[in-house]
Design goal:
Order of helices and strands: HEHHEHEHHEH
Structural class: mainly alpha
CATH architecture: 3-Layer(aba) Sandwich
Oligomer: single chain
Strand order of the largest sheet: 1-2
Number of strands: 4
Largest sheet: 2 strands, parallel
CATH class: Alpha Beta
Shape: globular
Length: 161
């Protein structure tokens, strides 16, 4: 959360002349409700089921840039779908940066707590080893403009061509 997946993904897709998809936005389009409401009604497990189905469908598309939610890597089926579909990028941002970027957001159900910093630190401890293991490319987004991150990503992606 707060690493810039959607913003950078959208800009990267534009530069590469590809379609951009955000799995969370696709879930909201499909259901007609917010991620927050899905969490409220179905809980995290219900949301993760929807997320897996959405990622599986999107991963079959060609010529796209896909931004997933940070918890998508927790399920092996998502990791497999992403690996099969293309190059996996991990946008790294330290917890302090994530906290700064997400502090006023009401659209992040896992951070609707009295201690969002503690929650982000817990999530980072759990998820970061998986992010690094799955990533073909790691890019740091702390204190960088989306344009700068996209330029670096394009340079790194050229190695895969």
């Amino acid at each position: 959360m707060g690493a810039g997946k959607s913003t950078i993904g959208r800009n990267l897709a534009k530069q590469l002349h590809k379609q951009f998809y955000d799995s969370d936005q696709e879930i909201e389009k499909q259901t007609g409700v917010t991620i927050n409401l899905i969490f409220e009604i179905e809980g995290e497990e219900g949301f993760r089921e929807r997320e897996s189905r959405t990622i599986e469908a999107l991963a079959r598309k060609k010529n796209i840039v896909l931004a997933t939610g940070g918890g998508a890597v927790l399920r092996e089926q998502n990791r497999l779908a992403l690996r099969r579909s293309g190059i996996v990028v991990y946008l790294y941002a330290p917890v302090e940066t994530q906290l700064k970027r997400t502090r006023s957001s009401k659209h992040r159900p896992l951070l609707q707590t009295d201690q969002p910093g503690d929650k982000l630190r817990t999530l980072m401890r759990e998820r970061e080893p998986i992010y690094r293991q799955e990533a073909d490319i790691v890019v740091h987004s702390k204190n960088r403009s989306p344009h700068s991150v996209v330029r670096e990503l394009i340079r790194k992606l050229n190695v895969f061509e």
